[in-house]
From TrEMBL:
Domain of life: Bacteria
Regions that span the bilayer: 12-34, 75-97
Taxonomic source organism: Rhodospirillum centenum (strain ATCC 51521 / SW)
InterPro entries reported for this sequence: CCB3/YggT
Annotated PANTHER family: PROTEIN COFACTOR ASSEMBLY OF COMPLEX C SUBUNIT B CCB3, CHLOROPLASTIC-RELATED, YLMG HOMOLOG PROTEIN 2, CHLOROPLASTIC
Family: Belongs to the YggT family.
Annotated protein name in UniProt: YGGT family protein
A matching Pfam family: CCB3_YggT
UniProt keywords, alphabetically: Membrane, Transmembrane, Transmembrane helix
GO cellular component, one term: membrane
């Protein structure tokens, strides 16, 4: 495989792994805000929550539109994480990542 193409796939593999962590941190942060452990009146917390919301919402919104309403439970981050792991597994199995 071309070295440039291999480098692009390796970069994509790492970015997908980092995005999984962004999804996890966003979910934990939303739980902390929902249970009033931290509040958004603190400017730093508000900015952090806004950054994670802007990073995750474009990916999670289409998934939420497809999934049925489960009350207060949002499983869209789990679905996206499973999709990311599936894509990463395909990259490894097809030899795109060494």
């Amino acid at each position: 495989m071309e070295p440039l193409l291999l480098t692009i796939f390796q970069l994509l593999f790492v970015v997908l792994g980092l995005y999984v962590w962004v999804l996890i941190i966003s979910a934990v942060l939303s739980w902390l805000i929902a249970f009033d452990v931290i509040n958004t009146r603190n400017r730093f917390v508000y900015t952090l929550a806004d950054i994670f919301y802007r990073l995750t919402e474009p990916v999670l919104r289409p998934i939420r539109n497809v999934l049925p309403n489960l009350g207060g439970i949002d499983i869209s981050p789990i679905v996206v994480i499973l999709l990311i792991y599936f894509i990463r597994s395909l990259m490894v199995n097809y030899g795109l990542i060494y």
